[in-house]
From TrEMBL:
<dbReference type="InterPro" id="IPR023801">
    <property type="entry name" value="His_deacetylse_dom"/>
</dbReference>
<dbReference type="Pfam" id="PF00850">
    <property type="entry name" value="Hist_deacetyl"/>
</dbReference>
<dbReference type="InterPro" id="IPR037138">
    <property type="entry name" value="His_deacetylse_dom_sf"/>
</dbReference>
<comment type="similarity">
    <text>Belongs to the histone deacetylase family.</text>
</comment>
<dbReference type="InterPro" id="IPR023696">
    <property type="entry name" value="Ureohydrolase_dom_sf"/>
</dbReference>
<dbReference type="GO" id="GO:0040029">
    <property type="term" value="P:epigenetic regulation of gene expression"/>
</dbReference>
<feature type="domain" description="Histone deacetylase">
    <location>
        <begin position="20"/>
        <end position="303"/>
    </location>
</feature>
<protein>
    <submittedName>
        <fullName>Histone deacetylase family protein</fullName>
    </submittedName>
</protein>
<dbReference type="InterPro" id="IPR000286">
    <property type="entry name" value="HDACs"/>
</dbReference>
<dbReference type="GO" id="GO:0004407">
    <property type="term" value="F:histone deacetylase activity"/>
</dbReference>
Length: 308
């Protein structure tokens, strides 16, 4: 069992209100699918530990971290931006979502496991250095990456983001950090309406027009991502795994299918095997068509675990 599965009960208790697409049912469906398909039998399961304020402050300003912590309500809901609100469980969930990626980093770099999937919510890739945004409070991937760089002393870390929405928060935090290469695909003319003009030379963004399907994804990976990754030679790969470019997901309009996500997952494992002894950490971002999300996460995790 060389692949870890990290989650926390608070990640299900976090709720942003009826009809909100970023809902607890997302994680419930993923768990049920992994159990029902027997995938969980091949994973090392861990309860995520909360990120510390020091760990969060490597990616966010200390003032911002304090603001989020102090805003947490004890009852009801508190809205922080038009898309993002807290209930009484949100703070614990957000701390454990970021902490899961830190914990996964320690597990992978200690050699305890080779790969990890963090089944967490709230997601993170829209959270900027000092702002909530797009359902996100703390930037889970960026917190983990800075832990790998600043605590473990890695010199080259790759972040891959294939969510249908541009990871503006990750770019805001990691742009011009020469220890990081970020490669991404996302749909053009879609929230958060950024990414076509990258903020740093270490950002390789491949915007994809609507209704183009999986063929352009494959071209981007083979023609753009692979050459950059080969030149960079990462020591560890992080993945912001969003599944909302799926044909069944109405949050975007790229029309990817299950087979596209499977192909992409195999390519990411190939990158990890080529450059960093197979070491890869994936953390859940978007994906709001519940059935498609559960299917695609299950096959993603099975591929990480070398079961497919």
């Amino acid at each position: 069992m060389h692949t870890a599965y990290l989650t926390h009960p608070a990640c299900v208790r976090h709720d942003m209100g009826a009809e909100h697409p970023e809902c607890p049912e997302r994680l419930i469906a993923i768990h049920d699918r992994l159990v029902g398909q027997g995938t969980m039998d091949y994973l090392q399961s861990y309860t995520a530990q909360p990120a510390t304020l020091a760990q969060l402050s490597r990616a966010h300003t200390s003032l911002y971290v304090d603001e989020v912590v102090n805003a947490a309500p004890t009852t009801g809901y508190l809205r922080l931006d038009p898309d993002t609100q807290m209930n009484s469980h949100t703070l614990e969930a957000a701390l454990c979502a970021a902490g899961a990626v830190v914990q996964a980093t320690d597990l992978v770099l200690s050699g305890t496991v080779q790969r990890a999937f963090c089944a967490v919510r709230p997601p993170g890739h829209h959270a900027e250095r000092s702002a909530t945004m797009g359902f996100c409070f703390f930037n889970n991937a960026a917190v983990g990456i800075r832990h790998a760089l600043d605590v473990h002393g890695l010199e080259r870390v790759l972040l891959v983001d294939f969510d249908v929405h541009h990871g503006n928060g990750s770019e805001d935090i990691l742009a011009n950090d020469e220890r990081v290469l970020m490669v991404s695909t996302f749909q053009t003319q879609l929230y958060p309406f950024s990414g076509e003009n990258p903020l740093g030379k270490n950002m390789l963004n491949v915007p994809l027009p609507p209704r183009t399907g999986g063929d352009l994804l494959r071209q981007a990976v083979l023609n753009d991502w692979w050459p950059a990754v080969n030149a960079f030679k990462p020591q560890l790969i992080y993945v912001s795994a969003g599944f909302d470019a799926h044909l069944e997901d109405d949050m975007g309009n790229l029309g990817w299918r299950d087979a596209d996500y499977a192909w992409l997952s195999h390519e990411l494992v190939n990158m990890a095997n080529t450059h960093c002894a197979g070491r890869l950490i994936s953390t859940l971002e978007g994906g709001y068509a519940i059935a498609a999300l559960a299917r695609c996460v299950n096959q993603h995790v099975r591929i990480l675990a070398d079961l497919e």
